[in-house]
Amino acid sequence: MAADRTETRVYDPAEGGPRESCLVTIYGPELGRKFPVDRPEVRLGRSADNEIVVSLRDVSRHHCVFHLDEGDVYLQDLGSTNGTLLNGKELRANERILLCSGDHIKVGGAIFKFLGGSNVDALYHEEIYRMMIVDGLAEIYNRRYFLEYLDREITRCRRYERGLSVMLIDIDRFAEINQRFGHLAGDAVIRELARRIKVRVRKESCFARYGGDELALALPEIDLENARTFGERILGLAADSPVEFEGRRIPVSVSIGIAALNRHDADAEAFLRRAEEHLHEAKADGRGCVRG
Question: Taking CA atoms, which of 15, 138, 239, 289 is between 20 and 30 Å from 60?
């Protein structure tokens, strides 16, 4: 159950020590950097006079501020041009919101994770490990983890003569989305598409952000026919409802290339190359389709 952001917190000595708070960059410039929230006000923005400087054009000079009050930390947007998002929801200008450990704060093209409690150092080291395997924007595995997973699964599936399919999913005309709606909207499309697919992926599978606007799925125990069926469902997940961002509806479609492991695939690279060839076929055939 989510923490109640309206209730007063009472310090419990059993927690093992005084609470500390910090922000960790999980997406954007200075990835992995830790910013302590250890003074009454910690300001974030593009200007050099902020305690946290984010040098991105879509970040306002004075974007938001973190207030430390008796161990609790509150977030306040300072009337920024592009807004401040807390766990995907935009804050109203000058509204103060109590933060809970694990909250995500999106400021322009950067995302921070708030950590608070009596074991902030341990939480920070856990977050650094998580950043090694998880993409900060899409909140799914990253390319590095995906390739390591695929290598392991190829070995396992060959040893036990099990099926394995791989799927590459590319957002159609993504550059046009960025040009028409802005790069923040492009980020929102990637996040929302990943969210829609993630909830339908089996825990045995590996779902990852493979490139800028490309997602990948490794599907153990799935043959080519069933992978195609799942691919058709993903086409619907993308196209059936537009992505909403700042009051605008952004239509989205994807193209998908699929391959099933065979004895001619020397390694993961060769396996993925066949899926990529089929992805190019889907693009050439008019986009919004599955090939493989």
Answer: 138
Contact between 154 and 267 (Cβ < 8 Å): yes
Tell me which residues of the chain have a pLDDT lower than 70. 1-18
The catalytically annotated residue of 170, 213, 265, 267 is: 213
Give the DSSP per-residue string, 215-283.
Answer: EEEEEET--HHHHHHHHHHHHHHHHSSPEEETTEEE---EEEEEEE--TT--SHHHHHHHHHHHHHHHH
pLDDT of residue 19: 82
Task: Find out whether 191 and 109 touch, Cβ atoms under 8 Å.
Answer: no
Task: Specify the pLDDT at position 93.
Answer: 82
Other beta carbons within 10 angstroms of residue 274's beta carbon come to 19
Residue appearing with tokens 């493989």: 292
* Residues 227-275: tens digit of each pLDDT: 999 999 999 999 999 999 988 999 999 999 999 999 888 899 999 999 9
- Rounded-to-integer distance, Cα 10 and Cα 98, Å: 14
Exposed e or buried b per residue across 239-269, where buried means at least 16 C-beta atoms within 10 angstroms of its C-beta? eeeebebeeeebebebbbbbbbbeeebeebe
Q: What is the pLDDT of residue 266?
A: 85
> d(Cα 167, Cα 276) in Å, to the nearest integer?
9
Catalytic annotation on 135?
Answer: no
